[in-house]
Amino acid sequence: MNVLAWNDRSPSRRCDWLDLIRGWAVVVMIEVHCVNVWLRPDLIPTWLQYLNGLVAPSFIMAAGYSLALSTFRADGSIRPFGPTAKRLGFILACAYLLHAPGLTLAEWTVLATPARLRELFKIDVLQCIVFSLLILQGLARAIRRPLVYAGAALALAAAVALAAPGLWAPGVADGLWLPLRGLVNGNTDRGVTALFPLVPWFAFAAFGSVLGALYRELRVLAAAGHARWSEARWLAALALLGALLALWGTAAASAWLPAGLSQNEVGRLHNTTLPSIAQRLGVVCLGGSVLGWIEAFRGRWPGPNLVKAASAESLLAYMLHLEIIFGLLLAPPIRDRAGWQWHSLGWAGTLALTAAVIGADLAACVQWQRLRVRPQGVRKLQQRALMALGVYFFAGGWITYHHFRRSPELAMEPYGFLNAARIRKGLAPTPDGLSRDPMEGEREKQRLRGRRSNGNIKP
User: What is the pLDDT of residues 90-137, one digit of tens each?
Assistant: First the structure.
């Protein structure tokens, strides 16, 4: 793009700035989880906390934006819902699988606990995206006129943002059926806290959908071979809109909170207000505009575009990095031997682990894109993966079960078999089966170390 590109009204075929927003959100998301897991809390600066808080708004807004572009055809008609429903169903299955008690039969039965089973219903970012898109899909199919749909989506976004502080009041929705409870607010109920309830996070998807509908009208649709706006003009308007939203949101933030709140209540409710939502949307729009201009001016580098690969394979990147961090690096044997305990590292160790996880994630995204050009090979790989997962489902977890049956003193979760195991060892039962005497655990660890050194027990 150059100065003359301001008048280049060639219709858009790909929204580069949105791809970059989504791709960079993937990279920062991995940093968020690494920092929150390993870095000592006293080392985290305020500016980094704010930057990390923009990841979810970016993802959710991008999802709504893409919906508006993919749902309406060029002639204004609606695309069939079947393929979209299949995709959303798969994402929702992945979302709940991440919060399932586990991937094995043992974890669903003998190793299940009430707390683990309730965690299944936690509303995380993927659930929020799917439910938001289903609402917007229904709205689009009911209205069927893109610009009217954009107006309705904007009204819904504002209504949700305005209602959010009231719906987050203590006691609201307590006792509601647990699968629906987390859609209303982020208050803890029965040990479950929704991380991304629809109120107010739906507002980000709805606002993104408004932007997507406008982009379709101004940059995608063509009359006499030309769009109404050039990409440069769109990026400039996006930056102006972002600046206005960010400035108004910052200026009005405190005025929209009820008077007389404690510091804890202010911190809890701040992100639910309309100014806070507007501020974050504004910063994301500004960032998207800057990325769009950089992409237009920079030279093309050799090799794959890692950020766009992460954007295209964002679901893979999301699930893979969670498994690397929480399933592998935080597994007790690795965590204990390497010293990677929660909140135990400084900047050097945290950055090294962050770089390693980001590198592995991006490499997987690039490799998967290369594999996808050969559909038959992908299908074979998927079939083998499903077979391996099936075997693991029936075979996995039993070693853990037998370990805690032999050493119930070491259990950290209240499994149902613990008291029976304690009685067999001559230990007194407890209300939940967990040890109340710290020395019990130490004695059992010493006993196991001694038996391992004699070769009688394998780790």
Answer: 999 999 998 999 889 999 999 999 999 999 999 999 999 999 999 999
Same structural domain for residues 170 and 104?
yes
Q: Structurally, how many domains does the chain consist of?
A: 2
Give CA–CA dist 59/153, Å, rounded. Answer: 17
Backbone φ and ψ of 78, nearest 5°: -100, 135
Residues 182, 281 share a domain:
yes
Helices (H), 298-346: 306-312, 314-322, 332-338
Q: Which residues lie across from 192 on neighbouring strands? A: 189
pLDDT digits (tens, 9 = 90+) for 152-195: 999 999 999 999 988 998 889 998 998 899 999 999 998 899 99
Q: Indicate whether 415 and 293 sit together in one domain.
A: no
Verify that 278 and 403 share a domain, yes or no. Answer: no
- The Cα–Cα gap between 243 and 59 comes to 20
Cβ distance 160 to 199 under 8 Å? yes
Q: Domain check: are 70 and 173 in the same one?
A: yes
Residue 110 phi, psi (nearest 5):
-65, -25
Q: Are residues 307 and 430 in the same domain?
A: no
Residues of the domain holding 169: 3-374
Residue 152 CB contacts under 8 Å (≥ 6 apart), including other chains: 139, 143
Considering the domain architecture, whether residues 427 and 331 belong to the same structural domain is answered as no
Secondary structure of 356-396 in HEC code, one letter for each residue = HHHHHHHHHHHHHHHHHCCHHHHHHHHHHHHHHHHHHHHHC
